[in-house]
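Q: How would the structure tokens look for this protein?
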Amino acid sequence: MILTYQKQCQARVNATLESALQTPSEALHRLYQAMRYSVLNGGKRVRPLLVYAACETLQGMPEQADGAACAVELIHAYSLVHDDLPAMDDDDLRRGQPTTHKAFDEASAILAGDGLQALAFEVLADARFTPQHAELRLQMVRILAHAAGPAGMVGGQAIDLAAVGQPLTQHELETMDRHKTGALIEASVQLGALASGHADEVSLQALRAYARAVGLAFQVQDDILDIESDTATLGKRQGADVAHDKPTYPALLGLDAAKAYARTLCDQAIDALHPFSDCAEPLRELALYTIERRH
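A: Here is the predicted structure in token form.
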């Protein structure tokens, strides 16, 4: 079921991304070419899937979530473009293709990332993409900005860079990952819930608990795959964490214990969905997918 659902959601968000990334003029052709390359060259679209699944869990319709799904993927894509730069992780491969700064150049990659970040908020604030009333759109913009900024993803990347070669406790590692990876995943679930028009504090609290567990499980599995998978399957350089001497869960806990921890987090996520009906089944399956995926 999850593969069919994934394809349906991918088709929806890809159509919205295509619409948002139409080149407005010939003068901006190269910039938009780099932006489109950074977003439309594949990807699992996990964050948009979470947006759609959370919306549908609260009886919303997929079209209500298109803008939010597009926005979170634009933020995710921008973060990957900048993370891959020589000043950051200095990676040459992303989604099985040359990274944006390799396919174009460093300046174009920086500008493409900047453009994608700004476009995410434009899409979320624009009623053509996000049909909710203005007050709700403003709330959604604030949630995404918080998750993407220094209190979330950017802050996590700063902690990550400072932690290279440094021993971290499990608590410190989880703090970094809840910022770097978890914040945008949590925002995706919240935005989907709000897009439904049926969110209340009880449902939001349950969905936040779900997303908090899934976000951390996603990063634990990423660390495991950096050891167990290969470059062709991952679509990015295998062993990069070890090469950069980054703190990871397998390094801290051991590989078997890291796998057990990912399973525990998955179980926590599924338990958090107890208040919901069968409409939450895509979220349950996405939690399992998080720790069973091979790339």
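The beta strands are 93-94, 97-98.

The chain has one domain: 2-292.

Upvote if useful.
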